Amino acid sequence: MPRRAGTGPRAEAGGGAMREGYGTRAPRAEEAEQVAALVHEAERSQDPTAGARTPAEFRAVWSRLDLARDARVATAPDGTLAGYAQVDVVRPGRLHADGYTRPGHLGTGIGAALIDWSGDRARRLAATAPHAGAPATLLHYVMLDGAADRMLRARDYRLVRVHQRMRRSLTGPLPAPRWPEGVTVRPCDGTPEELRRVHACAEEAFADRYEGWAAPSSGGAPTWSTSGPTRPCGSSPSAPGGSSASPSAT
Question: pTM of this prediction?
């Protein structure tokens, strides 16, 4: 699954209006259970192993959001919830968009509407204190080559990182690991100093490599700069660079 970063909304090619009878509004606090069920259904449709998030988890997230402005539900003609999205400020300069369409309502324009809303909301959040004036990146986690990925590409979002999931049968003996030349493995000694080094290594390996929310070029498409690949943990400065990867959903 790729992680995509971008500058926000643009008119969808061919139009992006939702089908008649569908609409969006802010979620209500008492709808946490319905939103959790909707999101779980959407996640399981793409990843059968996805774990269910609880209503309590959504209430905890909503407690730190401005629920009236930072989240949206899409409603179907019968009033049921058909989609959900939120935009969260992870830290100054980094915003995360999360969006879902209920499987039975795909193709109704919900996904495009929520992507465009999230880009607009992220721009507004990035322009407010204490974020104003700092470069900003809006991140989406989506399935590679899926509908959300195609819609983000159409809006000039740029690929930041691809997360991959690998699987194998656990029946029979597992092959012995083959480590790259010069790499050794040992147990972590559990000391505070080593745990800090492990944490710093993980933070570097999974850091977002795009520097910021670049100004559009003369043609209207954003231009992005990247700081390049990360050195593998424990390597020397002369060691070849590497990139990291692992999954996620939208």
Answer: 0.68
